[in-house]
Amino acid sequence: WTYFVVTDSCMLLFSAGESYEVVVRYMLNHYGFFPATMYFEFCPDLASSAPFCIVREMEATARTPLAVELGPVAPYKPFQVVTYKPVDTIIVEGVPPDRYAQKGSESLLKLKNSLINYSYHDCVTYYIFVYYILSFLYFIPRGLLNCALKMKNYSHRFHLLLHLEEIQMEVDIRKYDLHKQTMTQDQSNRKLLTLGVPGVAENRPSVLRGDCLRVSKSEDTVQPITVYTGYVHRVELDSVKLGFSKRLLQTFISNMKFDVEFTINRFPLKLQHRAVELAVKHQLEEVLFPSAHSRQSSLLPFISILFSRMFNRQLENNPEQHAAVECIVAGSSKPAPHIVFGPPGTGKTVTLVEAMNQVSRVDPSAHMLACAPSNSACDLLCERLMVHMNPYKVYRMYASSRDPNSKYCNLDPTQNGFVFPEKEVLMKYAVIVTTMVTAGRLVSGGIPVGHFTHVFVDEGGQAVEPECIIAIAGLLNPKNGQLVLAGDPKQLGPILRSPFALQHELGLSLLERLMNHNTLYQKCLDSGHFDTRFVTKLLQNYRSHPAILKVPNELFYENELQVHADQWDREAYCNWEYLPKKGFPVIFHGVMGKDEREANSPSFFNVSEIEVLVDYLIKLMETQGKKGLPKLSAKDIGIIAPYSKQVEKVKKALKSVSALSDFKELKVGSVEEFQGQERKIIMVSTVRSSISYVKMDQDFNIGFLSNEKRFNVAMTRAKSLLIVVGNPVILNKDPTWEKFINYCVNERGYTGFDFKDAEGEDDVVSRLATLRISTASEGLYSYT
Ligand SMILES: Nc1ncnc2c1ncn2[C@@H]1O[C@H](COP(=O)(O)OP(=O)(O)OP(=O)(O)O)[C@@H](O)[C@H]1O
Predict the structure, then answer these.
(1) Three-state SS for 338?
(2) Which residues form the Helicase MOV-10 helical domain (predicted)?
């Protein structure tokens, strides 16, 4: 090759029709995906005319064999959205999963259909949309939404907000309808048909066991069209198994094409509608809108004598936790709720668990309901309760929608599903642990009003108020019952779709509403302190190394959080040889990856980030138990990724780590699955690497960018080592991430790709955008 160096002062001269070949070489120091922009400036006539440019975009990828193996199985091909037309139909009912609607505790108190009762089939998107706009402009009593929430307007206002949310859900779910899809007969159960639903693991669309889908044969064009309802028997990563009527199974042949319509599951919504009505019926005003004058006299001095010893001895060193347990057991806030709040790792869950143990000891006849919005948070509560409580006193109740492979209390293997025992059986347990929504089954099952002397709600900031009320209205004794709410409004909150419902504060949890709007839960202006009978604020973090907490503490907790984690535990990885800086157990590993999709799944993955994660994992396994490092098991490590496809690919990659024999014990999951959890080592893969998808993340409320609550939860799970892998150029566009990356750079915890260069590249691109240029894409140069 002969090279010619072209500069401003040393130009290359061309005659018309002449060409010059430009060879580009990439020198890569890291694996990853490296786009680059190259521009050529041409001066047609040196003396007079203005120069013009031609721009070429180039990309290079460098991948290990593992990354090649994890790469897309097929090019991404999004589903086409089908325009739906109303048609005359005949409905053929399908077969729900076995024992889905168990007798026993079921349906003694019926659920009403909600006020807006339209048939799904008539719900053409535009109709809903028009209805939505019209109803909002003309019919909705605006005063109801604009005035403060009171007991007088409690049920009306929540009915309205829940309807607004439901209408938006109806509009949103239409986007997932499928056209000309094939199904296959399930090999293990030939009565079921399998339908591929890409994105189902990420709730796009949200489908649970027991939900129903409607399908019609694509070739069926003569009206009335036969529509078959299929019930979901099982949800898998990218597919669902459906139970249809015999009529469809008998005529089913492979490769038959179907149009599929998803429906929203109205069960949780109906429960919420019923709960807000019951709250009014059972006069929960003193629980939901407590005031100082309704307070009962406290038994506190008497109770303090009753227990001087904690079941969990650790709590004895923390006066706030100790006092909270005393207040709860004494019922000193009754009938007002007691709130335990505080940043991550400050012992909110252990305080609730201790209070439950003490209540059970002081009053063996007490009946407690322990709830949380998610099953993973309920499992954690249950696990911690079992440490000191007689297991026969505790009942973990799962919803029928839960995969029957879970091995817990109300699973009946002979019936391949969850059973709901008779109310007499349930009423014998001292503690029932269940999600708020499933607590609605206790009301339906006829558990008498006021049966529960105590209701404990963990992660209370994560649920909308009507969801929380499901576990209270009709179950808690409105006069003598004690409600305890624990949570942190700065961690993940409820997910809502309707902008109107959001605007009118349906997104506010009961815990947050009380803290924001009720003076009993606010600091006293004179003393500057909370009234500890009503509020316990925990500030001592027992989980993490201070370096891990630094940024969340500054961003979300005004630096109030104090580090009290055991020194030996929190410093366990401070001397790890692979830390960029000894003594600073936080790593940000910059990776120029590519966020890809495959086949027709809308979810994202990034193989370059997985390579880095696996590399760290191998290093961790190789060094464990050596040079003062603790022995590690897979249970000590957690990997968090914001997209289900990345979770799936990481799980696949873990099989290749031979040093990790029990890799199934290593939890890989979304931030939502990690709320309330902790691990010695947490690795986070942020995945996002293209700026063009950031808007999509905002619209679907997915990913890490523009969601500081998700950032907060992910960053505060690690005890002694936090490794974050991500694209610094993209993440730096978000102020929260920018702060974290700057922190890592300044503390010398940053490693990997040198992003300053890429930011320079960014500048070039924006400068080019201001020029009059023509662009064209070049081919992909690939080094494997
Ligand atoms: N008083 C204490 N002394 C020592 N360790 C404690 C104390 N209280 C809590 N811990 C420990 O701190 C860790 C965090 O506790 P816990 O999970 O209850 O916190 P949390 O506030 O519920 O966290 P999150 O907000 O993340 O859900 C646990 O390992 C727990 O055992």
Answers:
(1) strand
(2) 142-175
ipTM of this complex prediction, to 2 decimal places:
0.99
Please give the Cα distance from 231 to 214 (Å, whole number).
9
* pLDDT exceeds cutoff 50 at 119: no
677 CA to centre of ligand 1 in angstroms: 10
**Would you say 736 and 555 are in contact if contact means Cβ atoms under 8 Å apart?**
yes
Same fold, 89-146+154-267 and 274-538: no
Nearest to 603 by CA among 697, 737, 675: 697
From 325, 339, 341, 346, mutation site for ligand 1 pocket: most ligand atoms within 8 A of C-beta: 346
DSSP secondary structure letters along 731-765: HTTSHHHHHHHHHHHHTT-EEES-HHHHHHHHHHH
Per 3-state DSSP, the chain is made up of helix, strand and coil in percentages (nearest 5) of 35, 20, 45
Q: Token pair for residue 225?
A: 């069209």
Cβ–Cβ < 8 Å for 639, 679: no
Where are the strands (E) in 614-762, listed by range?
637-640, 667-669, 679-685, 718-726, 750-752
Q: What is the pTM of this model?
A: 0.82
Q: Write the CATH number of the domain with boundaries 274-538.
A: 3.40.50.300
Fold of 546-753: Rossmann fold (3.40.50)
130-160 per-position pLDDT tens digit: 455 545 544 555 666 778 899 999 999 999 8
Tell how far the Cα of 348 is from the centroid of ligand 1, in angstroms. 6
Q: What CA dihedral angle connects 97, 102, 107 and 110, to 10 degrees? A: 0
Q: What number does the ligand 1 atom closest to the CA of 315 have?
A: 1
Distance 543 CA to ligand 1 centre (A): 6
User: Which pair of structure tokens corresponds to residue 420?
Assistant: 């709901």
Nearest CA to ligand 1 atom 11: 542
Residues contacting ligand 1 via CB (< 6 Å): 314-315, 317-318, 321, 342, 344-350, 488, 542-543, 676, 678
Boundaries of every domain in the chain: 23-62+773-784, 89-146+154-267, 274-538, 546-753
The angle formed by the CA atoms of residues 238, 242 and 247, to the nearest 5 degrees, is 145
Architecture of domain 89-146+154-267: Beta Barrel (2.40)
Residue with tokens 């109310």: 423
Helix, strand, or coil (residue 682)? strand
